[in-house]
Design goal:
Number of strands: 8
Order of helices and strands: HEEEEEEEE
Strand content: 35-45%
Structural class: alpha+beta
Number of helices: 1
Largest sheet: 8 strands, antiparallel, barrel
Length: about 130
């Protein structure tokens, strides 16, 4: 075997071992993703109230909120945010200019709410017990 063949074989063995190890142990990226379940959602926006939101693997939406508020499903039943998981948490987009960015912190998530790219509030989501 010549030197070039040995280097190529060593490189392939290293890449193969790394790929195998990553596949077996996982990449570690999923640990901070937004977990499915019910959350208490609070925001710093004026006039906003605490609400209960549900997170599924691909979306998040309110199921209860202060009567008459935008989080009240009877007032705003189409509030559904498409959830995109990231290493540090996730971001959710409602398709009409609203976006929530979440980062894992403690036993929940913190982040910001945006409308048309302008920050409108700080948000916090804590799992309901």
């Amino acid at each position: 075997m010549n030197t070039r063949s040995r280097i190529t074989a060593a490189a392939l063995a290293t890449v193969g071992a790394a790929t195998l190890a990553t596949g077996i142990t996982g990449s570690g990226e999923a640990s901070a993703q937004v977990a499915s379940g019910k959350y208490t959602y609070t925001t710093s926006a004026p006039g906003s109230a605490r609400a209960t939101w549900v997170v599924t693997g691909r979306e998040m939406f309110p199921i209860s909120g202060q009567k008459g508020s935008l989080s009240d499903p009877s007032v705003n039943p189409w509030v559904r945010y498409a959830l995109h998981q990231t290493r540090s948490g996730g971001w959710a987009d409602n398709g009409v200019g609203g976006r929530i960015v979440l980062r894992a912190k403690g036993n929940g998530y913190v982040g910001e709410a945006y409308f048309l790219g302008i920050k409108t509030a700080d948000v916090r989501m804590v799992p309901k017990r």
